[in-house]
Input
Amino acid sequence: MPVTPHAHDISAPIARWQRELAAAIRSPEALCAALDLDPTIAAAARAATSSFPLLVPRGFLARMRKGDPRDPLLLQVLPQPQEQETVAGFSADPLDEATALAAPSLVHKYAGRCLLLLTGGCAINCRYCFRREFPYAASGVTTTGTEAGLAAIAADPSLHEVILSGGDPLLVVDDRLRSIVDQLATIPHIRRLRIHSRLPIVLPERVTDDLVNLLAVTRLTVTIVVHANHAHELDATVAEALGRLRQTGAILLNQAVLLAGVNDCVPVLAALSERLVDLGVVPYYLHLLDRVRGTAHFEVDEETARRLHEALRGQLPGYAVPRLAREVPGAPAKLWVG
Ligand SMILES: *Cc1c(COP(=O)(O)O)cnc(C)c1O
Ligand code: SF4
Output
């Protein structure tokens, strides 16, 4: 006998990307088993998962090398015992974002543009995440908070660009995203929409036909900033997703974080830039790590960063060299280093 779906199943069918996310790896033991890694690595990872859980989509896992505990994709998601250590200069909110809230869910620090935080959720938990401890609920990152944020944007004619952020803003389902984009498009002073998302990289199934269509038809000029740190992240599934995003006419940019052990060497950074450009994505920022508690083992010092960046400039065309940037609380823009 056929199963009769419930009414809510008809109105909101589970999309393929949501099924992929539901099947993501959520424990160090499962991660290590899938990669043929020594179980002692999982045991060492356990302690750090209580404050920030492990989360890795299986498609991202498939791009890691089996049996290699130093794999650059693995290191981005594997909890480390060092995360529990207290290190001077590393704090819960080093960017002072909690005090930059202009309205619920709205971070307005720089002229003409603001961040609208749509969700605290992500499809992957990057251990270096600068919003690891962000107080999403207390910052109004809720459905009603979004309405208040949209109202504040409509009331501030100095704003011309809205940046959807999170968490990962593409974790929001297409119907809600369309409604938010449509509301933004009715505000006369808003000309540009920017989406900062790692989902096209870590969960490329998220680039649905509905998403592509809604970005293609809006009157707003769309920029999509994806977030890849290593060329190994950019496999054929990601290439296809990025190709679909390009067809919308959106400008595609990448931001990376400079991470010790992951991408702090010139050939790796050059390969990332070359692969991005081949896929039609312009390298935008190479960020120095934000000094969030639990991430000190990823830090690359500024002097080393400058040297790497200078060497990169000697190897690549100018448009393939990302700006080396650092965020300084209270500054009118991100600081360009070097
Ligand atoms: C990074 C950031 C932006 C965007 O800065 P750009 O230099 O335009 O990329 C805007 N607002 C906030 C709060 C940011 O952190
Ligand atoms: S995708 Fe971005 S917001 Fe999400 S965990 Fe990674 S760094 Fe943080």
Summary: The chain has two domains: 16-84, 97-336. The beta strands are 101-103, 106-110, 113-117, 161-165, 192-196, 221-226, 251-257, 282-287, 323-326, 335-336. Residues 266-278 form the longest helix (13 residues). The pocket of pyridoxal-5'-phosphate (ligand 1) is lined by residues 107, 109-110, 113, 115, 163, 333-334 (CB under 6 Å).
